[in-house]
Design goal:
By secondary structure, the protein is an all-alpha fold. 80% of the residues lie in helices and 0% in strands.
């Protein structure tokens, strides 16, 4: 199936967004794992320089990961780069489908598009400076230019197949994945909390026993809860599921044989819906 090659700025910011997201979750996982392992070592309480050194090492890893998150602020760069990538994708599809504000002659539309790209680069200098462009890619791809020469029905068919259907697949897949993850994490939290309560009750009768895993289970539960809150699986599952339903309705509402004006109105509504969902995603992450 044909694909639309997007502007170089999209791929650069998309790569930066993925890299910063990956860095944040690796640092967070390191932090939480270090806390769990340190608590296990403390629970065993084996008096030796080896156990003391191991515990100190894992606590230092926890500290280092916290400093990385605080100093490098990967979440901030992740969100900013993703916002830029989505903005570029939106105007690229508008240009390629020859809709407002890029419905004029080829020369003026291309000039306006480049102007918009330059404006996005200037407005997002902190992101652009951290994401060097691929010299082999252009801001106006041959596929974007070629699509503009097709008829309105052909442009609509291409847009439905490569933009609307792609978004529908992404939101549906993500909704299902987040629902599964939410159930798994909730089950683990419930198991850890229940087991901790059981050990705490049993300890009343065996208080002289030195080693009890209660504190470790409490730490594990707290760490899983922190991961759950960071991933926001339950909230995203519901939000993505709703978005998938809206996109299904949007796909079904496509005009059968659109004129240029009808195509422009349809894509305007579709891109506004995609931008609205992404804006809401950013707002949820910032809180």
């Amino acid at each position: 199936m044909e694909k639309l090659t997007l502007p170089a700025l999209f791929y650069a910011s998309d790569t930066l967004s993925r890299r910063q997201q990956r860095g944040y979750y690796i640092a967070l996982a390191t932090n939480l794992s270090g806390l769990i392992i340190a608590s296990i070592i403390s629970c065993v309480n084996y008096a030796s320089w080896i156990s003391a050194t191991l515990q100190a090492t894992f606590l230092l890893l926890t500290l280092a990961s916290s400093v990385y998150i605080a100093v490098n602020r990967p979440v901030r760069h992740w969100y900013a780069a993703r916002a830029l990538a989505e903005s570029v994708k939106t105007i690229a599809w508008r240009y390629a489908c020859k809709v407002d504000p890029f419905g004029a002659t080829e020369a003026s539309a291309r000039s306006l598009f480049i102007e918009r790209i330059c404006s996005l680069i200037a407005q997002n200098a902190s992101v652009s400076g951290r994401s060097p462009a691929d010299a082999t890619l252009s801001q106006v791809s041959a596929e974007m230019t070629a699509l503009r020469t097709r008829s309105a029905p052909e442009r609509l068919e291409f847009y439905i197949s490569n933009r609307v259907s792609e978004q529908l697949h992404w939101y549906t897949t993500k909704a299902q994945a987040n629902e599964r993850m939410a159930k798994i994490l909730f089950t683990l939290i419930l198991f850890a909390n229940t087991t901790a309560v059981v050990f705490a009750v049993v300890r009343v009768h065996y208080f002289s026993t030195q080693i009890w895993p209660t504190d470790v289970l409490v730490t594990i539960s707290a760490c899983i809860l922190t991961w759950y809150q960071a991933k926001k699986s339950g909230e995203l599952s519901a939000s993505y599921g709703l978005a998938a339903h809206e996109i299904t309705a949007l796909r079904d509402a496509a005009p059968a044989h659109p004129t240029d004006e009808e195509l422009s109105q349809y894509i305007e509504g579709a891109e506004s819906a995609f931008s609205r969902e992404h804006t809401q995603w950013i707002a949820r992450q910032d809180h």
